[in-house]
Each structure stands twice: as C-alpha cells, then as structure tokens.
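Fill in residues.
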C-alpha cells in the first residue's frame, strides 16, 4: 500500500542485503519509522514486543529471523535454537510456527554453507505468497461487498465493521479483512468502515484507522462496546474480521472481543465473515475453545494507556484504581456456528469441517 504516495510493504530486505527492515508498529499512528533487524534475537524481540504483529506478518518476520540466524551461524544447533526462540515469542497465531516449520524443513537437510541463501529464498517466497493470497481474498470478499451494495439505496455506502487490525499492517501487503475493502474502494464502490478501537492495545484506533485514512477509505472509530448497538439499528451491513488460527471444524481465534461481535451479529442477522489465508488453518485442532493456546499479556496493557499528549509528547497514564487486579487475555474463540463464511484465497467457504477439508485437502498433514 502507499504511504504519502510511496509504495511500501510492511517488511523487506534492507539495502545492505544482510538485514531486514520493518515498520515499527509500536510508534503508530504518532510516528512512521522503520527499524532494522540484524539478528534472530532482534527479530524475536520485534515479534514479542509487537513492533510487528498480526498473524501473517509475524510469520514473515520469523522466516526472515531464520535467515538472520543462518547468516550468523548455519550449524544445526543454531538452526534449532533460532526455531524455538522464534516460536516461543507468541503462542496463539499459528502462522508463526507454520513459517518457522517451513523454513526449518527446507534447511535441515542442506549443507550448512547453503542454508543462509535458502532461508532467504523461503522468507521472500512466504512474503510474496502472502501478498498474492491477500489479493485473492480481496477479490472473493469484493463479491460479498457487491452483493451487499445491491441491497442498498443508490449512493448509500456498504457499512462494514471490523475488529483489531487485520489490515495491511498485519500482513505483508493488502491485509486480510481489509483487502476486500480496499478493492471495493478502488473500484468506486462506496464503503464505510466502523473501526473498533480494540482495547487494550488499540490496534483498531491506532493502526486500522491510520491505514484506512492513508488510503482514503471513509471510516469511523468506535469504542469496543458500540458495535452491538450499531447492529441493532441497521448501521452495519457486514462484519469482516481476521483470524490468528482457524481449526479443522471452522472455529476462529482472533483478537479478544471478536466473539462478542459475532454474538451481536447473530442476534441482529448481520453477516459475520472471517478473512483468512490458509496459513492460518490448524487442522490438528478440532475444538477451538479447548485446543488453542490463548496468549495472556502483561496486565499493564489494561491498567495503563498511551497516547499523544497536547504538548506533542507520547505519555502513558494509569487508568485503573490502584491495587485492583487486572487480566489480559489477548484472543478469544468464535465458534464456527456464529460464522457466516470464511473468505479464503480459494473462495468463500462455510465454516465447517467438510467445507474446509474439501477446499484445503492438500494442507491436511496425515
Ligand atoms: O495481537 P495482534 O495485534 O497480533 O492481533 C492481530 C489480530 O488479532 C488480527 O486480527 C489477526 O492476526 C489477523 S491478521 C490478518
């Protein structure tokens, strides 16, 4: 996507040819700064501290992290150490383990002197495939938006609610939930996006609103509690969210609060779609509620909030009564029965075991 007219991906090989450049998402929307990752330790730190975040992007970063490790030391111990360091950074999004696994399996049987070059090829292929996959998701989702448009009065926008950031910044380019939105906007279809702020880290307010704004897509930021009310009053035509892990039976794990949106959508007959690349599928798990590890993050993300003060400095302030306990589960699971459809690179499919198995039989490992 373009920022101030310049096309960017969210991650790329640095000019030196030896390191990786990312956009530091912990500074958004107040600053747009790049950061160079020169070692696997720095790649792991960037994922853990959420300088990069979003399931596909942490997978891509991990793949580059494997390349950085192989440049420093291509031996077996380094390979295994890098793989476990990267996988241990965040537990919920399966793309991370998926990317590390692809890289490790491509390298383990190679002579050490060939590993760095191969690791780079794998990382770049993962990035290019992510872009192509998201474009395919965008085209399939575009058809859904066109169908919604046909039900609107002339000139009225299609109102889409999204949660967290499953946008360009969560992937290498285009986003998953946002790809259909960008394609509709670019095709001249009037769209308007309700952006959930997404406490505690505010990825909606900080990231989704920023990138939609940069692309000129009309949008309105709402507090996380507003979605149900808007749906009850006919102000939402569809919900599109992303996924960090989708199970064999179609249960969807995504940012905390997604489940509540799905419940409200069901009650209000609003279609609830999940946009996901097949790298997010985990056929080894059947029950999302019991099988998916949910990341528990630092409680200070809940008890404090950071923002731009009127004097132009970024400040973090406390917002919870002193002494109160806080909990910070970062993801929740939306059962398949609440999902209208999965927007994948192979089309829009039912969130069910037979539909997933039919569409992605080649991805099931026996
Ligand atoms: O904690 P984050 O910011 O990494 O969470 C991101 C999300 O929950 C996204 O919706 C998900 O990763 C899908 S990204 C295309």
């Amino acid at each position: 996507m373009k920022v101030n007219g310049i096309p960017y991906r969210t991650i790329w090989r640095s000019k030196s040819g030896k390191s990786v450049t990312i956009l530091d998402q912990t500074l958004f929307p107040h600053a747009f700064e790049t950061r160079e990752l020169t070692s696997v330790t720095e790649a792991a730190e960037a994922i853990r501290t959420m300088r990069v975040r979003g399931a596909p992007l942490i997978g891509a970063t991990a793949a580059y992290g494997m390349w950085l490790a192989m440049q420093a030391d291509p031996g077996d111990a380094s390979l295994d150490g890098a793989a476990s360091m990267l996988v241990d950074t965040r537990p919920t999004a399966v793309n991370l383990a998926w990317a590390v696994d692809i890289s490790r399996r491509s390298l383990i049987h190679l002579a050490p002197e060939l590993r760095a070059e191969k690791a780079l090829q794998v990382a770049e292929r993962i990035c290019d495939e992510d872009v192509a996959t998201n474009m395919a998701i965008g085209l399939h989702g575009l058809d859904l938006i066109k169908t919604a448009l046909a039900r609107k009065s002339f000139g009225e926008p299609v109102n889409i609610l999204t949660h967290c950031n499953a946008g360009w910044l969560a992937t290498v380019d285009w986003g998953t939930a946002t790809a259909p939105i960008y394609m509709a906007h670019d095709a001249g279809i009037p769209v308007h996006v309700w952006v959930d702020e997404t406490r505690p880290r505010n990825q909606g307010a900080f990231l989704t609103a920023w990138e939609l704004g940069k692309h000129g897509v009309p949008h309105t930021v709402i507090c996380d509690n507003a979605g149900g009310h808007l749906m009850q009053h006919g102000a939402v035509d569809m919900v599109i969210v992303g996924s960090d892990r989708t199970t064999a039976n179609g249960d969807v794990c995504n940012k905390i609060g997604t489940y509540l949106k799905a419940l409200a959508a069901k009650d209000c007959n609003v279609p609830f779609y999940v946009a996901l690349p097949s790298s997010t599928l985990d056929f080894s798990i059947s029950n999302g509620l019991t099988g998916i590890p949910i990341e528990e993050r630092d409680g200070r993300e809940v008890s404090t909030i950071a923002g731009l003060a009127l004097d132009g400095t970024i400040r973090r302030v406390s917002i919870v009564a002193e002494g109160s306990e806080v909990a910070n589960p970062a993801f929740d699971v939306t059962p398949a029965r609440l999902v209208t459809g999965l927007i994948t690179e192979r089309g829009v499919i039912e969130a069910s075991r037979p539909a997933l198995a039919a569409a992605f039989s080649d991805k099931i490992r026996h």
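The radius of gyration is 20 Å.
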